[in-house]
Amino acid sequence: MAIERATAFAPGSVGNVGVGFDILGFAFGAVGDRVTVTRRPTPGVNIRAISGVPDALPQDAEQNTAGGALLAMQEALRLPFGFDVEIEKGIPLSSGLGGSAASAVAAVVAANALLDVPRPMAQLLTYALQGEAIASGSKHADNVAPCLYGGLVLAIGAEPPRIASIPAPAGVRAIVVHPHLQIATKAARAVLRPDVPMPSFIEQTANLAGFITGCFAGDLDLIAASLRDVVIEPQRAHLIPRFEAARDAALSAGALGCSISGAGPSVFAFAREECAEAVLAALLTVFASRSIASDGWVVDLNSRGAHVLPT
Ligand code: HSE
After folding, report:
1. I need a labelling partner for 214 at 20 to 30 A (CA). Which of 32, 56, 57, 87 fits?
2. Residue 148 belongs to what H/E stretch?
3. Separation of CA 182 from chain center
4. CA nearest 97: which of 50, 46, 29?
């Protein structure tokens, strides 16, 4: 007999990682969402409570990322029962830290624990992606996939994407800083031009290939040479006050690379372990100089993905 109620934690994530727009991301457990799902006798998804954020989020399941993911699961599996849902947001809204993905992923991971026959991760990914699409308008997996699988992952192809884990290079840590501002993902996507000039395409392709190769080879010089976003970052930098100063300060403090986390306003950097705290301090200082409060973390690149919490 399956259990009736489960709570799952899903970590924050950094989408794009600069060079992999919509296809590359890593999880980090310093922040995360918790979702409790309870079986109810009749089909349907009922969002009973949302806590942890000051702004109201949609409680209509079809408008909510967790609700949308569960509806997708329910429809695909033709479940004869429904779900009551409680969402505890630990990831700030519109922060660029994968909050919409985390709610969707935590919901499907918790619900999976209630199924008579739990489904594989690849199937959960497709349901969570339908939830993510509610918030961002598109089914990109660069937050959902690392949030579900953990670590640094590449999402290849679509419907469903194939997920490849990229090894975390030894001796490297990530720095994530969240300035207390909000940028709606849809708005940050709307500023992007639909076409990429050929020279930028070539450079960005080389940077992504160089970055991935550097991770597999543990070649930090190659990572440093490659971790530069020449396509998306230049189009979004103006959305984040002091972004260029922050990135330059991080690089001066020894970062291997620094760019926008997802759609922003959060930023991330990679750094050798011994430089990580200095890079964090440099980023915080730049935002503080504009009186923008921010939180920041030094995190591992192999954080655990979403999981059911013990009861
Ligand atoms: N890859 C996405 C973007 C992440 O940058 O728009 C935010 O959902």
Report:
1. 32
2. helix 144-149
3. 15
4. 29
| Token pair belonging to 179 | 């300035």
Residue 263 in contact with ligand 1 by CB distance below 6 A:
yes
pLDDT digits (tens, 9 = 90+) for 237-267: 999 999 999 999 999 999 999 999 999 999 9
Kindly list the structural domains of the chain, giving each domain's residue range(s) and its CATH number in brackets, ordered by start.
Answer: 5-165 (3.30.230.10), 168-299 (3.30.70.890)
- The pLDDT tens digits for 206-219 are 999 999 999 999 99
- Counting atoms of ligand 1 from 1, which one is nearest the CA of 189? 6
| Half-sphere exposure for 44 (CA within 13 Å, toward CB) | 7
Find out whether the beta carbon of 189 lies less than 6 Å from any atom of ligand 1.
yes
Q: Which helix (H) or strand (E) holds 101?
A: helix 99-112
Q: What's the pLDDT tens digit per position in 169-209? A: 999 999 999 999 999 999 999 999 999 999 999 999 999 99
Cβ of 100 closer than 6 Å to ligand 1, yes or no, is no
Q: How many CA atoms lie within 13 A of 180 on its CB side?
A: 8
Q: Please tell me whether the overall predicted TM-score, pTM, comes out greater than 0.90 for this model.
A: yes
189: left (phi over 0), alpha (psi -120 to 50) or beta: alpha
Round to whole Å and give the CA distance between 270 and 176.
9
Do the Cβ atoms of 7 and 308 come closer than 8 Å? yes
Instruction: Write down the residue that tokens 């020894």 correspond to.
Output: 254
As a whole number of angstroms, the distance between CA 235 and CA 244 comes to 12
Tokens of 234: 């230049």
